[in-house]
Amino acid sequence: MTAYQDDIDAIEALKQETGSSWDAINPESVARMRAQNRFRTGLQIAQYTADIMRKDMAEYDADSSVYTQSLGVWHGFIGQQKLISIKKHLKTTNKRYLYLSGWMVAALRSEFGPLPDQSMHEKTAVPALIEELYTFLRQADARELDLLFSQLDAARAAGDETSIELIQTQIDNYETHVVPIIADIDAGFGNPEATYLLAKKMIEAGACALQIENQVSDEKQCGHQDGKVTVPHEDFIAKINAVRYAFLELGIDNGVIVSRTDSLGAGLTQKLAVSRAPGDLGDQYNSFLDVEEIPESGLSDGDVVIKRDGKLVRPKRLPSNLFQFRAGTGEERCVLDSITSLQNGADLLWIETEKPHIAQIAGMMNAVRKVIPNAKLVYNNSPSFNWTTSFRQQTYDAFVEAGKDVSAYDRSKLMGVEYDDTELAQVADENIRTFQRDSSAQAGIFHHLITLPTYHTAALSTDDLAKGYFADQGMLAYVKGVQRREIREGVATVKHQNMAGSDIGDNHKEYFAGDSALKAGGENNTMNQF
Fold this sequence. Notes:
Elements: H1 3-18, H2 27-35, H3 42-62, E1 68-72, H4 76-90, E2 96-100, H5 102-108, H6 125-158, H7 161-172, E3 181-184, H8 192-205, E4 209-213, E5 229-230, H9 233-249, E6 256-261, E7 268-269, H10 281-286, E8 291-293, E9 306-308, E10 311-315, E11 323-324, H11 330-343, E12 348-351, H12 358-371, E13 377-380, H13 387-401, H14 423-433, H15 435-443, E14 445-450, H16 453-469, H17 475-489, H18 496-499, H19 502-513
Parallel strand pairs: 1-2, 1-14, 2-3, 3-4, 4-6, 5-7, 6-12, 13-14
Antiparallel strand pairs: 7-11, 8-10, 9-10
Helix pairs in contact: 1-2, 4-6, 6-7, 6-8, 8-9, 11-12, 12-15, 13-14, 16-17
Organism: Subtercola boreus
GO molecular function, one term: metal ion binding
Cofactor: Mg(2+)
């Protein structure tokens, strides 16, 4: 027996118990509606997707070639279309997630309008987007199952037993569009209690994985901007604990915490760490400070000093009242941050880097893995990187090291189109193509994501349409660039009424009102042209 048939039988039995007042209720229609609404709460989604992530993490530990991927999305429809496309082209959503980017929430979802990525947007916008994404993914399930139900009805009407069996099998083994979301909670939007309260809302909306970073909450900056300020480990651990308590309170015992360190690009700290004994965590954090040795007689009013190796030293304090770290300590701090987070409740790491360089990433992860062998990384394949220039320069340097002639290339101008067909560019492009596979094998990257790709694709596709439509191409710009491609490439949105739920609504009307239902999908519906 399948869940679908079990529901039919259960409703039939209930109908018999209830009596004639339920004569109009069709048990199979109820079973269909239940199949189309598999997930009834966000917590059900959070548990289902947490189980998926934990399984995927274990499989990656056994085989680094089975890494996972996601694209950042900023609207439910964009997330829905991404998963529909994955199922269409790749036949399964296995190992594919969604990423919710705080950057895109700030830039696209705030009531204030576009904002920089500095935790200035409404914190409620984050759980609202999670809920919206899962609403659209569940609607994708409902739509796709509705198409199968219609095909089943047609096969039954035709007496086609082979098709009936095939379609019923597809219904019974249906793969949902609902996948894990890794959701950005920034630096926690306040103190640990604020982090806990927001984490609960995000989990209740369906998030199984929350990514939190070690910046000062009220000084938070985008990971690819200057001016980042980190917090001592004890402060950050308190927020990791807050997120874990939120998961446990809501019963998602295997919820995933992604601990992000911005220390590679963060040269500042807001405060000194508390140290209770030489070599403890606070002492290690303070050891990276840029200091100057002073005699006790040289102290001035308001000076802050610490004792290091038996001597008094004064941490260098900026006019902003922030303290700075020694230059060149970023990688060491990232390693310490990562080890500390994993030892204090985090499940996955995120090291924000300034370029996509496998050797750099692997160097830090190898140091972490000496202490925690199964440490795994979530890595931002960031649009803030100039991938073309970076990989062409890496390839140029490799050519030089190998003794190859590079006289035809100017390393400072490798972005130029004149290099596109050269051997160097082809090698660089191949290294870009295999970057995710290679770095997952060499640098412990479990999950690859692009934070804000759909921000760029929305702008690019709009630019393509606008430049033709408002010029001499007129409607041909839309027909040739959009509609004709949708039809020929099988993009479901060409039937936009169906995508928006019109056919589902028609079928529900028929459930509710039978032959007297007024339906939108008749012969005069222009969608029949497609």
